[in-house]
Write a structure and sequence with these properties.
Elements (H helix, E strand, L loop, with lengths): L4 H7 L2 H14 L6 H57 L4 H17 L4 H13 L9 H4 L7 H7 L2 H9 L9 H6 L20 H15 L11 H11 L6 H20 L23 H29 L4 H15 L4 E8 L4 E9 L2 H4 L3 E3 L3 H9 L3 E4 L2 H5 L12 E9 L2 E10 L7 H31 L10 H18 L3 E8 L2 H8 L1 H18 L5 E6 L2 E7 L3 H16 L3 E4 L2 E3 L3 E8 L6 H22 L9 H16 L4
Antiparallel strand pairs: 1-2, 1-6, 2-3, 4-5, 5-6, 7-9, 7-12, 8-9, 10-11
Helix pairs in contact: 1-2, 2-3, 3-13, 4-5, 4-10, 4-12, 5-10, 10-11, 11-12, 13-14, 13-18, 14-18, 20-21, 20-24, 21-22
């Protein structure tokens, strides 16, 4: 139904009626006609109604503008928090650490009467105080051990860099100054400006105390978290030095209530207007679980990068195969959880893959494996040059006699090691759970093996070269170079422990006769057989080495004088009993002269001990020549030579 203006005016309620009444009151008692008075009153009412309408619209527009402002502010702040949390995840801090630090800092600021606006600045700075670490290399932030002066200088730029990053953000409260000063120290030895005492902004001092505590009670790549009591003790030690002592005392006093409030959610760790958990805010896309997964993925990616860096760094300083594999296994375990890890090296001559290193569950069984290339899990991977993911290693264990019902390892990830188109072996990770390894594990293992192949190849070459440098090629015994190094270490240990070391010098008496009578190959065989019986006659931790020519040296640790004498006689007996065949069934008796010297009685250096053992050996040789006739029935080397010469003369004269 269409209404007249007057009806609308009157329907406008008290305001419209009042305006009409006021119009009539203004013209009462005058000669103005009634219709003019009505027009005046109506005009006044219309103006008032228009003003009311415009006021209402203005209030609505203002409310809409305020809502839009709050919405834009909330979105901006939510974006900042998401980025800050992503940065912290990259820095390998947990979400809980970030929230805890923020909540504690805000409550500390309130406890010291900081104005509400500045409390919001503290809340924001607690999130952004380490944003400058984006400019610090990860290997420095996560380094195990002390930093070099150059690395320390690089870390110290992060507070200035963080302040510069957020300087152009128009926060309605101070933030950049708190980020800049949160590493200033109470005693003036901090950075970047060297401020001291109360010249450091209160918010920055609060952040410093809270950051100290939260960092100390959180796990870091280079150390484990301290207990609550240990962290509080550390705060007290730093009070008056790095930290404001008044703030430390107040923080320790408030800590129990802060912890309870944080654990129960009574102290929101968010800066989003106290609306509750950020995970429930409408401008956060996704659930709490989704956000946690996102930040966990960022942290995991950073962890992977750092672990690969550590592998490369560790491998660069490793020389031996065992050292290299220790580094690989230690770093790889964080990225590819395994029950055991093994290295198989490919022997191209024998076409086998032999386990050279193993750690973890079933390591003892793994070390026994020698697998034919092309058979079994590892053998097939080496033959085909292809990775094997989650296959059952049962066949490999059957090859060493482990039945199926006795096998603990149920899944394997096998990655061939390839260098210059040649397969040198395989890196194998095992797990007790069937199908445990996933595609990410496979990808990471491939990255590691790509790095490890060249290093392991070089380690094998190094060990081979090193072994050849300290090994006698004829007998396989340690050579003179090894002997001097080992004897020097043993003498140092004996001095430290006040123990003894015996040095036995052995000379193969008739080697020259054998060489002359039967040739040098036979003499070389005599040396090898003597070396073998000597090695079997000593303890596993004692050493027998070839000293040179026809001489051997035996080192006996923790050996007294009487024990050395007994071992001297024993070694002569085992060599005397050696049946050395030279031609057909013809045998030659082998014998050794032995001299013994014992530290510290006969000398305190290896030169003095060797000289004494040499004297004793020649004394023994002289006595043996006088007292020991040639055994009957078994010709000596000289007798054989004489017989041989006679036969040769007969042959030359045509008698034979």
């Amino acid at each position: 139904m269409r209404r007249t203006f007057t009806e609308r005016l009157l329907l406008a309620g008290p305001i419209g009626a009042g305006v009409v009444a006021a119009g009539f009151w203004l013209v009462r008692g005058t000669s103005v006609p009634a219709w003019v008075a009505f027009l005046v009153a109506t005009a006044a009412a219309g103006a008032a109604l228009l003003a009311c309408h415009l006021h209402a619209r203005g209030r609505t527009a203002l409310a809409d503008a305020q809502r839009q402002h709050h919405r834009a502010s909330d979105i901006s702040l939510a974006t900042i928090e998401a980025l800050a949390r992503a940065i912290e995840a990259r820095a390998r801090s947990s979400r809980t650490d970030i929230r805890r630090e923020q909540a504690y800092a805000v409550e500390m600021a309130k406890a010291f009467g900081v104005p509400a606006e500045e409390v919001e600045g503290v809340r924001m700075a607690a999130l952004l105080h380490d944003v400058g670490k984006l400019g610090v290399p990860d290997h420095i932030l996560t380094k195990k051990g002390p930093l070099t002066p150059e690395e320390t200088g690089k870390v110290r730029i992060h507070s200035q860099l963080g302040a510069n990053i957020i300087a152009d953000v128009l926060f309605p409260y101070p933030v950049a100054s708190l980020v800049l000063c949160h590493h200033e120290r109470w005693d003036g030895s901090g950075y970047p400006a060297g401020l001291s005492g109360s010249t450091i902004p209160l918010g920055a001092r609060i952040l410093s105390v809270v950051d100290h505590f939260v960092s100390l009670t959180s796990d870091r790549p280079f150390r484990k978290a301290l207990s609550r009591a240990e962290a509080i003790e550390a705060l007290w030690r730093e009070a008056g030095r790095a930290l404001d002592p008044v703030l430390v005392a107040r923080f320790v006093e408030l800590l129990p209530s802060l912890e309870v409030a944080f654990e129960t959610g009574a102290t929101p760790g968010l800066f989003l207007r106290g609306t509750g958990a950020a995970d429930e805010h409408p401008y956060y896309a996704g659930t709490s679980e989704t956000q946690a997964s996102v930040f966990d993925e960022i942290a995991l990616a950073q962890k992977e990068v750092y672990a690969l860096y550590e592998v490369a760094q560790g491998l660069g300083s490793s020389l031996g195969v065992a050292d290299s594999m220790s580094v690989i296994a230690e770093k790889l375990r964080d990225l590819v959880p395994f029950a055991s890890c093994a290295l198989f090296l490919h022997d191209t001559t024998r076409r086998i893959a032999r386990c050279r290193y193993a750690i973890g569950t079933g390591a003892r069984q793994l070390r026994q494996m020698e697998l034919r290339v092309g058979t079994g899990l590892v053998g097939r991977a080496i033959a085909t040059r292809e990775c094997r993911l989650n296959e059952d290693p049962g066949d490999d264990f059957l090859s060493i006699g482990v039945p199926a019902d006795g096998q603990i390892l149920k899944a394997a990830l096998v990655c061939p090691l390839i260098i210059a188109e040649r397969v040198i072996g395989a890196l194998v990770m095992y797990h007790t759970e069937p199908g445990f390894f996933n595609d990410d594990h496979h990808r990471i293992a491939l990255r590691v093996t790509a790095q490890a192949s060249a290093v392991i190849h070089n380690s094998v070459l190094f060990e081979t070269t090193h072994e050849e440098a300290v090994t006698d090629q004829l007998t396989g015994l340690p050579n003179n170079r090894f002997l001097i190094l080992h004897l020097t270490r043993e003498l140092a240990r004996a001095r430290r422990l006040a123990s003894s070391v015996a040095v036995l010098l052995l000379d193969l008496d008739n080697l020259k006769d054998i060489n002359d009578a039967y040739g040098h190959p036979t003499g070389d065989r005599a040396l090898r057989e003597v070396a073998a019986v000597l090695r079997r006659a000593i303890r596993p931790y004692d050493i027998v080495s070839r000293y040179g020519g026809d001489e051997f040296i035996v080192l006996l640790s923790d050996c007294r004088i009487e024990d050395a004498e007994a071992k001297r006689v024993e070694l002569q007996q085992v060599v005397d009993a050696l049946p050395f065949v030279v031609r057909g069934t013809q045998r030659v008796l082998l014998a050794v002269s032995v001299g013994a010297a014992v530290f510290p009685r006969d000398g305190d250096t290896y030169e003095a001990l060797l000289a004494m053992a040499d004297q004793q050996m020649y004394r023994d040789k002289s006595q043996r020549k006088r007292l020991t006739p040639a055994p009957s029935g078994i010709p000596t080397a000289m007798e054989n030579k004489a017989i041989e010469d006679v036969e040769l003369r007969k042959a030359a004269e045509g008698v034979l």
